[in-house]
Structures are given as C-alpha cells and as structure tokens.
Design brief:
By secondary structure, this protein is mainly alpha-helical. It has helices spanning 2-7, 9-34, 38-68, 75-105, 132-232. It is found in: Membrane.
Length: 259
C-alpha cells in the first residue's frame, strides 16, 4: 500500500478497502463451512455476495482512477497498477468460485430461475484484464450455459403442457361424473315423490277398507246377536222377526167364518 500511496492517496484508500473486504470474505467462507442450519447458510451467503458486489465496484473504481492517471505515470508504475488490479480480480474470482461451490452443494435449497443468466458479481472478469482466448472461452462457456438453460426450459414447458392436458382430461371426467350424479339425484327425487304419493293413496285405501270391515263386522255381530236371542227366546215380542227365522204363524179364523 505504501507504493500505491506514493502514486495516489485515492488508489491507496481503495486498495485498503478492498483488502478489508477480502479478509471479511475469507473469514465468512470459513464460518460458512461450519454452519449446519440451511437458513443461516443462506443468510451468510447473501451477506458474502453483497461484499463481493461491493468489492467489484471498488475494483472498477480502482481501474477508473488508474486510467485517469495513465498519462501522468511512467510505464513501470502503470504496469504495477495493472498487475495489482488483475491480482484483485483473480482473488475476487476465487471467492466467486467458492460461492458457486456452496450454491451447487445446496442447490435444492436455492431458488432456480431457468432464464436467469450469470449474476453481476459472478461476471467479475473485466474485459481489459482478459486475453482474446479467455474472452472466446468465456463466450463459449456462456453460450453452452444458455443452451443448457434453454433445454431445461423446454423440458419444463413440455412437462407443464403434459400436466395441463392430464389436468384438463381429469376435470372433464369429473364434470361428466358430477353431471351423471345430478341426473341420478333428480331421478331419485322424482321416484321418492311418486313413492310418497303411492304410500298416501295406499294409506287412504287401507283406512277406507278398515271402516268398511268394521261396519260389516258390526252388522254381522248384530245379526248373530239377533239370531241368538231369537233362538233362545222365540216368544220375545221386542225383537222383530227375521225373515226365514220366525216361527210359523198360528192359524187364524176369519171373523165371518162360522163356528
């Protein structure tokens, strides 16, 4: 830092801030390996991601200041500043790689977006610090990742369409089944109404038949009582003769008949 301070106080201050962040990242990833709780791991990883994002911003600021002083520094100093910047980028990329390892290790607990490209902090390699071959390799890698993401998206779309088709067919079958159930309920309700009317008619008929039977029973009982009394006491004048059961009438003489 002393050599940077001789070039620029601003560069020295930025370098100090970046060094503090690197120490915090080193300690943070060491603690992350010891955390067992998934939620605490996620929160710790988010905090480390914020620190990496801040470190990238400082590296860009460092590069901006170096370019601003390029015309006022000699070749050796400029080379030293560029090497310092590339060293910062390399160290930050090592922490980005650690972050990816932890994310892949706990991938089931991480929300996955198939259409989400590399995060800003993951794409920390600066074009000015990469060779043409590195740029081409990085571009090919990003194209491969994009193709894989597209393939995964197509697979999810096909699975979603299949699930939607199966769901629609199941809903159609359930709708038809409900319609049949409603029709059966209407039929049952109609049958119950007819049965209720029939039961009422049978009840009225039975009541009428009972009245008739009771009346016939009384008539028969009365006839039997009269016959019984007549047979027991044929001279009883209080009981009128019943045709066919009365005793034969006595011969009566006419008034005008001679004695």
């Amino acid at each position: 830092m002393s050599s940077l301070a001789s070039v620029s106080e601003e560069l020295a201050e930025i370098d100090g801030q970046i060094a503090d962040i690197f120490r915090a990242l080193s300690n943070g990833f060491q603690k992350l390996d010891k955390i067992k709780d998934v939620n605490r791991q996620s929160r710790q990883l988010e905090e480390l991601t914020d620190k990496m994002r801040e470190c990238k911003r400082l590296i860009k600021e460092f590069e901006r200041v170096v370019k601003a002083k390029e015309s006022r520094t000699d070749a050796n100093t400029q080379r030293m500043l560029n090497e310092k910047k590339q060293s910062m980028v390399k160290e930050l990329n090592s922490y980005v790689a650690l972050k990816k390892q932890h994310q892949s290790k706990h991938g089931n607990n991480k929300r996955v977006d198939l259409f989400d490209g590399p995060n800003e902090e993951d794409n920390v390699l600066l074009a000015s610090s990469m060779t043409n071959q590195e740029l081409m390799d990085r571009g090919n890698q990003m194209m491969d990742e994009t193709d894989q993401a597209i393939d995964r998206a197509k697979k999810v779309v096909h699975e979603t369409v299949d699930i939607g088709t199966e769901t629609a067919a199941a809903l159609k079958d359930q709708t038809e089944q409900m319609s049949r159930i409603v029709n059966d309920l209407d039929t049952i309700h109609f049958s119950m109404q007819k049965a209720s009317k029939l039961v009422k008619q049978i009840g009225r008929q039975i009541a009428t038949d009972k009245c008739i039977m009771s009346l016939l029973f009384l008539i028969v009982a009365g006839i039997i009582a009269i016959i019984t009394v007549k047979l027991v006491n044929p001279k009883n004048k209080d009981i009128q003769d019943i045709p066919g059961l009365a005793p034969p009438a006595m011969n009566r003489r006419l008034l005008w008949a001679p004695y």
